[in-house]
Amino acid sequence: MTEARPVNFGAGPSALPESVLEEACKGLFNFKGTGIGIAEISHRSKEFTSLVADLDNNIRTQLGVPPTHKIIFTQGGGTGQFSAVVLNLLARHRLLHPDLSDEQRVLDYVITGSWSKKAMEEAKRLGGGSVHIAVDARAKSKDSKSYDNIPAHEDFDFSADPALIYYCENETVDGVQFSNDVQSPASFPFHLLPAGGLWPLVADYSSSFMSRKIPRIADHAVIFAGAQKNIGPAGLTILIVRQDCIVDVDAAAKLGAVPVPITMSYKTNADAGSLYNTPSTLSIYIAGLVLERSKKLGGVEYFESVNGRKAQKVYTALQEGEEKGVYRSKVKEGSGSWMNVVFDVLGDNAESKFLAGAEALGMKALKGHRSVGGIRISLYNAITEEQTDRIVAYLKDFPTQIS
Description:
The protein is α/β, with parallel strands linked by helices. The chain contains ten helices and 14 strands. It has helices spanning 18-29, 46-63, 77-96, 114-126, 249-254, 266-271, 281-297, 299-323, 350-360, 385-402, and strands spanning 7-8, 69-74, 106-111, 130-136, 164-168, 170-171, 176-177, 201-204, 222-226, 237-242, 327-329, 340-345, 363-364, 375-378. It has a seven-stranded mixed sheet with strand order 2-10-9-8-5-3-4, with helices on both faces. Strand 3 (106-111), helix 4 and strand 4 form a beta-alpha-beta unit. Helix 1 (18-29) crosses helix 7, helix 3 packs across helix 4 and helix 8 runs parallel beside helix 10. The chain is globular.
């Protein structure tokens, strides 16, 4: 790029690597030497089906996805999966337990922020089962209503044989994230899952997918992620689905399960190699470029190391500002997200001054989500360590500007 671009700290659609954007521009005109642009080419062409296979392989290799799981590319974002996971896993549960009533089919939800709450509300709206709150972080918050923590393991209460167990690994609006260390008090309590082995564990990894390894990936029934954080543009949703959860939803409907729309059926999409209908071709192409770049850099191991350093620098600067009475974190210590750092700037008109000063220095999209306000610094994979150092320097300098 000949002209310096501002640093995009937005939460999504978020920053993409400049080298990827430059290559994508070429592909819009001429994809793989075909003379046809990626947004124009048939999704049934050998060039595009090869691209889908390469993207599948890059995710499988870099994350260590086991052969027990299928990778599916679909549309609808995380919000679409709020519905799809309920319908597909209720169908699975119906096939396993055909004689149970809807009230006896339990769906466990771990509520740690706005997105898991929305997912739970969608499950209630769809019906077909009884929703059980396994834990609600608000009960352990400072004001009994905020999502500022990951609850301790002893606070979780799972059902004996649920149709699904749902959690969101990183809540972008609220800035809380499960620890990657399974021994941490802020990790997901795998050891408390019901006995039986093949757990119906569902995880929303939208805002941290491919930023670090997924703990106990083989123990998950479904992992899904919208691409617009670390992977590519909006429009692509990536699923990792255990094969026993790819069921004949029509057979389940004959037993009384809610019919599953054809494009939401995991079996339909898996059987068609993610090409049952026209996919988001441009999003898949750019995601492929991003993950090829990731592979060359060292994969998720590389990004886990870099992202850990980035987050540590920002949290250290934030803590220094808190000690000066300028900033106030929205999240309890130990529950903070690597990807999304959220805080308030204290003082009359101080937040507006902070945002204006950052904008003048070429740092944009720092305003917090409308539901919680404040500041949100998103540190997705495309944000470099040098760009992180720029916001860290500003965090340290800003208190001197208003003192």
